[in-house]
Design goal:
It is a single chain. This protein is α+β, with helices and mostly antiparallel strands. The chain has 2 domains: 204 residues, D-amino Acid Aminotransferase, Chain A, domain 1, CATH 3.30.470; 87 residues, Dna Ligase, domain 1, CATH 3.30.1490. The protein is built from 10 helices and 14 strands. It has a 7-stranded antiparallel beta sheet. It has a 4-stranded antiparallel beta sheet with strand order 1-7-2-3. The two termini are 19 Å apart.
């Protein structure tokens, strides 16, 4: 079902033009972008602010260092190789376990050390980086994601995107990997997006390929019972990224580790707008309310404000809601 622009406006849906001009252009100083565009810089900055991130095994900065990767990963049962300046999940290689035959991906496919060398060389050459610039390869420890969430995802680690505006967490969704997305939590590749109630961290709506979804396409598990553990702690971590970066409008990508709780994966100074589809609600009313608030509240106060004003009832146990097609979003 397609929606007219007037219908989208009445639902508070914002498009790329308004996002770029009104929010990113006004609240994000471009000189601060390197803090979030470079995942290595983000990780080091997060450590300074006491924000937990996946452990860094090591980095590879030159082609000469590639041949030393075997020694670097020795003794690690699993790890992830990432481009420091990648985007959209491109170039991330996850090794779930290591056995005598080689390195095993979540899909079960096996790679050898030469395959890892080739992948890292591609990262260094800028194959996955923004603008094709030379890059750095990061090797991180795997996340031991909370087993309570295992029935809601396929092969990959589910992550949580929270839009933070002026330090207030205004909207959130969980991205669940699927067979179609090749185990990656990327909505454009077929992952399931689940809108989350800011007050409780419970599921309010599910979408896949811009259509309503009430269960996971591969596991068959219903989505209505989804509830994020340590939800308030997670929101407080996301809200503190405002002070950490100085960026007024950003996307924070989080995961739940079963041992360490909420962890920061990465930040985005230009977060996408699909989160509105996952929630079945536009960002504009929430952003408008936050703009009216005075400065000076601390992290806990901002989170409490968001939980009080942005609470909502879920749709997953109700009748199907009408679809809104994102192709019409142009305001």
């Amino acid at each position: 079902m397609w929606a007219r622009p007037s219908q989208l406006l009445s639902r508070g849906i914002i498009g790329m033009n308004r996002r770029n001009i009104r929010y990113i252009g006004r609240y994000n100083n471009r000189r601060l972008y390197p803090l979030v565009d470079d995942k290595l810089k983000t990780k080091l900055l997060a450590e300074q602010y006491g924000i937990t991130t996946p452990a860094l095994i090591g980095t590879v900065t030159t082609q000469f260092e590639v041949k030393g990767v075997g020694d670097m990963i020795a003794g690690h049962d699993g790890f992830a190789i990432k481009p420091a300046k990648g985007s959209g999940g491109k170039g991330i290689l996850v090794i779930e376990r290591v056995d005598h035959d080689g390195f095993v991906k979540p899909s079960g496919a096996k790679l050898n050390l030469e395959d890892l060398h080739r992948h890292i060389s591609n990262i260094l050459s800028g194959l996955y980086s923004l603008g094709g610039a030379p890059d750095v390869a990061m090797i991180e420890s795997l996340i031991n994601f909370d087993e309570k969430l295992s029935e809601y995802t396929y092969e990959g680690v589910p992550d949580i995107r929270v839009i933070v505006f002026r330090g207030y967490p205004v909207m959130a969704m969980m991205r669940l990997s699927t067979a179609a997305s090749d185990g990656k939590a990327n909505l454009h590749q077929g992952a399931v997006g689940v809108g989350l109630d800011i007050a409780t961290g419970t599921a309010v709506r599910g979408v896949q390929y811009d259509r309503s979804r009430r269960d996971h396409p591969d596991t068959g598990h219903e989505l209505a019972s989804l509830r994020i553990p340590d939800w308030t702690s997670l929101l407080e971590l996301t809200a503190s990224c405002y002070e950490m970066t100085g960026l007024g409008y950003l996307g924070t990508d989080m995961v739940i580790d079963r041992n360490q709780g909420p962890m920061l994966l990465e930040l985005n100074a230009r977060p996408g707008l699909a989160i509105q589809m996952a929630n079945g609600e536009g960002l504009r009313p929430r952003l408008d309310l936050v703009e009216k608030q005075s400065d000076g509240l601390n992290v806990k106060e901002r989170v409490a404000f968001a939980q009080r004003h942005f609470a909502r009832r879920g749709e997953l146990k109700d009748l199907p809601a009408p679809e809104l097609a994102p192709a019409c979003v142009s305001t």
